[in-house]
Amino acid sequence: MESSISQSQALKSLISYHKPHYHQIMKQRLVQRSSPKLRKTAIQCIYRADSKNFTGGIGLNRTDWQSSCAILASNVVSQQPETEKTSNSEITAVNGHQTLDLAPIVDQNLPKPLSLGPDLSAPPMHGNQLRVAYQGVPGAYSEAAAGKAYPKCEAIPCDQFEVAFQAVELWIADRAVLPVENSLGGSIHRNYDLLLRHRLHIVGEVQLPVHHCLLVLPGVRKEYLNRVISHPQALSQCELTLTKLGLNVAREAVDDTAGAAEFIAANNLRDTAAIASARAADLYGLQILADGIQDDLGNVTRFVMLAREPIIPRTDRPFKTSIVFAHDKGTSVLFKVLSAFAFRNISLTKIESRPHRNCPIRCVDDANVGTAKHFEYMFYIDFEASMAEVRAQNALAEVQEFTSFLRVLGSYPMDMTPWTPRNGDE
Ligand SMILES: O=C(O)C(=O)C[C@]1(C(=O)O)C=C[C@@H](O)C=C1
């Protein structure tokens, strides 16, 4: 890959990008994942950055961060010659992180046997605990979704969805959790685009009941407020209730719900309320001014879990399959695709179209010759069948005939847990 920055600059950028408070683990992973020469640079950078509290030294922006990830990703699986290996003690001595364990680096380079573990997907690569990257800070609903999908996981906060994807691609995390749809707000479109841009596989889904609270600093009353801040989805999920509460004040969108709560606490804002979870209130020392402010009591967000490798589809429990396809000619393709499922009695649970004119996709023909193609729209479909079922395989074979581009995003167990209202929700 062509790039104007070197691998050691890439490391510097990555390390300084991560805030020390939430990203200690990520920094350690970067050290572990890089080659011995780069590792030395990483250690020096972490040491310098930690001691300067990340304010000085290495300037960087998102573009640097993106290129850094790409460069380091290409370095991730490279083999290390025996003679070049750096000892644990050297790292611990310079960096001061006693828990740094380099043993998994060696393991990660070896092929792993396929496994049918409890979640039917590949086991964690960093010891026993699965690391799950999510967008937001602790107390975000995405963190709760990670906990629901993988109860004993270590949830890793990331400040952008893009970072959560890259954390998995760089082997810093084992899974990423991504909200894709809400029962009130509808599809989270940007995340569909991300699924297409990255090469991760959907390995599971969870439906999370979302119970919003209005959070303020202790002692603040409704009359003091002139602003409500939250994630745009959360703001839209509570719009009617806020109006009913007489809060006709400014709404401001921020990156995540818990981040809004943290912002109020950190800046001692007595004129601002956040829409976030009760857990966020606990974590950031805020008071719940109103509880259950979502416009509908059955407010549920659907999250998908992403991994580097797909899982083995099965037929002994209900599975869902997600696909994306496009066609460059003709208008009847959607009708034909839908009929391929209808004829086989396969139910669709989702259909979504996204404009895609400006972004070409590389398609390969039978001879593996690739051409860039522009498609007007990409279509996303979820259907209720496993890729292990013959009817699903036949339906997809037919879809492939009608379309110029088809990708299976994943075939994964459906979340069948019935929704139980919280006390007082009825
Ligand atoms: O901000 C959060 O807490 C999130 O986890 C994100 C998110 C979303 O993107 O929809 C998740 C669930 C809720 O629907 C509101 C916000």
Automatic annotation (TrEMBL):
EC number: 4.2.1.91
Pathway where this protein functions: Amino-acid biosynthesis; L-phenylalanine biosynthesis; L-phenylalanine from L-arogenate: step 1/1
Domain ACT, chain residue ranges per copy: 322-413
Catalytic activity: L-arogenate + H(+) = L-phenylalanine + CO2 + H2O
Record-annotated Prephenate dehydratase domain positions: 131-308
Pfam family, any one: PDT
GO CC entries: chloroplast stroma
One GO process term, biological-process aspect: L-phenylalanine biosynthetic process
Group of enzyme by EC: lyase
Annotated localization: Plastid, Chloroplast stroma
Record keywords: Amino-acid biosynthesis, Aromatic amino acid biosynthesis, Chloroplast, Lyase, Phenylalanine biosynthesis, Plastid, Transit peptide
Gene3D superfamilies, per the entry: 3.30.70.260, Periplasmic binding protein-like II
PANTHER family from the UniProt entry: PREPHENATE DEHYDRATASE P PROTEIN, PREPHENATE DEHYDRATASE-RELATED
Role according to the record: Converts the prephenate produced from the shikimate-chorismate pathway into phenylalanine.
Protein name: Arogenate dehydratase
Phylogenetic placement of the source organism: Eukaryota, Viridiplantae, Streptophyta, Embryophyta, Tracheophyta
